[in-house]
Design goal:
This protein is α/β, with parallel strands linked by helices. It has 5 helices and 7 strands, in the order βαβαβββαβαβα. α2 runs parallel beside α3.
C-alpha cells in the first residue's frame, strides 16, 4: 500500500515510517497540514495516518484539529484513502474521536500507542482493501 504519514514530531514520524516500510508498504512523510494536503492532491495514497494537532505551514505554531482538516481533504478525493486518526486528546475527549469518524476516519489511534496497534490497523485495512468489490 502507499501510505502518507502526517506527524509534526519528527522522531515519531520517522519511527512510524520505518515500521510501515518494514511491513512492505511505500511511505511518504509530511510534518505540516499544508504539506499533507498538497501531497494528497498530487499523489494517490491508499492510507493516511494523521496526527491531529500540528502546524499548518512552515515556522507556524501548532493548531488544534488540523488532522480533522486532513481527513476532510482526504475523503473529498475521487478515490479517498483510508484514514487512521491519531491524537493524545481522544482519551479525554471522546467527542473528538466521534467527529473524526463522522468525517471519514476508519481507525482511531489514541496517543501514546504501541507500534503493534498501528501494525494491526494497517493489516485490517489491507484485508478490507483486498475484500472490496471492484466494479467491472
Amino acid at each position: 500500500m502507499n501510505v502518507l504519514v502526517v506527524e509534526d514530531e519528527a522522531l515519531l514520524r520517522e519511527l512510524m515510517s520505518t515500521i510501515i516500510k518494514g511491513l512492505g508498504h511505500d511511505v511518504t512523510e509530511a510534518g505540516r497540514s499544508d504539506e499533507a494536503i498538497r501531497l494528497l492532491n498530487s499523489n494517490s495514497f491508499n492510507v493516511v495516518v494523521t496526527d491531529n494537532d500540528m502546524p499548518r505551514t512552515e515556522n507556524d505554531r501548532v493548531h488544534i484539529n488540523e488532522g480533522l482538516t486532513i481527513i476532510e481533504s482526504a475523503r473529498s478525493l475521487s478515490s479517498p484513502p483510508y484514514v487512521i486518526f491519531m491524537s493524545g486528546r481522544v482519551a479525554c475527549d471522546p467527542q473528538l474521536a466521534d467527529t473524526a469518524r463522522a468525517l471519514g476516519a476508519c481507525e482511531i489511534l489514541p496517543k501514546p500507542f504501541y507500534m503493534e496497534e498501528l501494525r494491526a490497523m494497517l493489516n485490517r485495512i489491507e484485508i478490507n482493501r483486498t475484500m472490496e468489490v471492484v466494479p467491472v
